[in-house]
Design brief:
The protein is mainly alpha-helical. The chain contains 13 helices and three strands. Helix 11 packs across helix 12. The radius of gyration is 34 Å and the shape is elongated.
Amino acid sequence: MRRKRYTGRLRRVSREHNVRTFASPDEVLSAWHEYQRGNSEEIRNRLVEHYLYLVRYTAERVGAKLPDEVDVDDLMSAGIFGLVDAIDAFDLDRGVKFETYCSPRIRGAILDELRSMDWVPRLVRHRAHKLDDTVRALETELGRLPTEEEIARRLNLPRPQFEKLLRDANAVSLISLSNKFGDSDSSNEGGEMEVLPDDRSCDPVAEAQKADIKEFIKDNLSRAERLILVLYYYEQMTMKEIGATLDLSESRVSQMHSAIINRLREDLGLTEPQLAQTDLIA
């Protein structure tokens, strides 16, 4: 069944309307004077509600550059701390608009929160971005994907350092197991975890093919022919050694081996690598 990744954004964006707790600029200015005279918690809370739209605007701009799983409301929660700090530190006498003063503080609070949650060191992430930029630049210049040697030469890195950079960059790239997949023909959906391959499990198709091959070999080959396959593919013996074991000439063993392979290829479409992967000894 064909699955496809949702193309729409999964981020939950706040839809609240802008809340202005003061009817006019004069009321806002009066509230500022009153707050700075007495640091009233009630006035501060009203100022926070009044300027909350700045937090929402900044959070949505920052969130637009982040993965879809990042919730804008979480960014707003961090930005509110920046807004409160800006209200506490704002000085009316400087003649600066509060909107201009608080925006960098809100953005800084959001970025600080994102950095605190990022398990990758900033230096490693910076190098990973530099590697991506270099690959894109070389791809544009060459019209194809660059080789590792070309990338290392452009970055002016010796091979050991470049390999370490590749390992660090691969560590930066993670897949969220909460990613959703949808079926184009129905409303069914599943998570990334449900489609991840399990390397420890056996491929049922391959196991069925091995069973068919083993059954065919046991039913259609003589004991001497089966022994030749076991000694050659599993004991890693040479044709000469097999001939000495079976009391046959080396040329006769080679002829029998070629005949066996031709029969298997004609009847089952089996190649030598597939034969080597079949457990004939069991």
